[in-house]
Specification:
354 residues, six-stranded parallel sheet
Length: 354
């Protein structure tokens, strides 16, 4: 067995994220829920690991410079593929798609976080048997609907007027880690601004932003005279209470692997309006627990938002159904899928454990 061969008390898994805090957080949740079964190694020393599982939770960490070629052959390799289609204008995504055929021959399992990602890789020639669909999870203890007091407290803390509809956008949508004045095409900040401008003619809007590189959106909101608040968060867990301030959340992206905001909004009871990207397509039942619109459909997104703002009973129904949906994706459930569908079968099949 692996433990006897290498002197470890439990089978070793090394999960590798990158500088993106979300990907690292996903690895932490997997570790927290499976550490009674496995030892989790330090990601910085993955090149020295032998006879184990190395899970690359970040496509760039695996694909850039063809790092998948550097994994020792005694290890089993797992890649989580989030997003990147041929329609994506980012040349880095194109480079990864160009390399995924070769990488898939070496990789033992590729986890896709959405059915769109699964279809993309099959189109690129990846063997379907290598693919396993497991979406991101959510901490339903951390993300939960607020009480009236909690909602009132955070809105007062952020100085959001009682008369304003607060719309959330917590995704990094500017290039780099500075001001972010250059928009990331894939995140659709231009689409988001167009929707907000349309809505601002009929409603008092206050936009709540978090995260770095939001300069492009802030500049656009300034130009149209729409109020906003921008909060920098040092700790991921702090984002949960900011959902309490929202009346709804908009995802205007052109391509996504998640985003995490899908489940964060749902678990928090925040009505969600999204383009047909990533996990949103798999989790949102259009009109029942959220709204889906075509990519770049500004009018459709605006109409969906208006329906929510104008119909309190619909908003309440969407919220309740979204919370129920999110319960099925708690990290306790999703982590068990990692164990049942990926980790344990690999270890057993290759006689690394019995």
């Amino acid at each position: 067995m692996l433990s006897a061969r290498y002197g470890w008390p439990k089978p070793l898994i090394t999960y590798i994220g990158d500088s993106n805090w979300v990907l690292s957080i996903i690895g932490n949740y997997i570790r927290d829920h499976l550490e009674s079964y496995y030892s989790f190694g330090m990601p910085y020393f993955w090149q020295s690991v032998r006879g184990s599982i190395i899970h690359f939770g970040s496509p760039p960490a695996y694909m850039n410079q063809h790092l998948y070629r550097q994994v020792h052959p005694s290890n089993k390799q797992i890649l989580t593929w989030t997003h990147g289609q041929r329609s994506n204008l980012d040349p880095q995504f194109t480079e990864r798609l160009d390399a995924i055929g070769e990488a898939s021959l070496i990789t033992d399992k590729i986890i896709v976080t959405s059915r769109i990602a699964e279809d993309t890789l099959i189109t690129e020639g990846v063997d379907r048997s290598k693919l396993t669909y497991i979406p991101f999870g959510i901490d339903t203890h951390l993300f939960a609907p607020p009480s009236t007091e909690q909602r009132s407290y955070i809105r007062k803390q952020l100085d959001i007027p009682d008369t304003a509809y607060c719309i959330g956008s917590f995704q990094k949508d500017g290039d780099g880690w500075g001001e972010g004045m250059s928009p990331k095409w894939v995140k659709g900040p231009d689409v988001f601004l167009s929707v907000i401008q349309q809505l601002s003619h009929s409603y008092e809007i206050c936009v709540l932003l978090t995260g770095p590189a939001r300069g492009y959106v802030k500049s656009g909101l300034d130009e149209m005279g729409v109020s906003y608040r921008h909060v920098w968060l040092k700790d991921y867990t702090d984002i949960a209470k900011h959902y309490w301030a929202l009346d709804l959340y908009i995802i205007a992206s052109r391509d996504e692997g998640g985003p995490m905001a899908v489940l964060e909004s749902m678990a928090s009871g925040v009505p969600l309006v999204s383009t047909r990207v990533g996990m949103g397509v798999d989790l949102i039942d259009d009109g029942a627990n959220g709204f889906l619109n075509q990519v770049e459909d500004v009018d459709g997104l605006g109409t969906s938002v208006s329906r929510i703002l104008d119909q309190p009973k619909l908003k309440q129904s969407l919220s309740a159904n979204a919370v129920m949906t999110a319960q099925n994706y708690d990290w306790r459930i999703i982590s068990k899928r990692y164990d049942d569908e990926v980790y344990r079968p690999l270890l057993v099949n290759y006689e690394l454990i019995r």
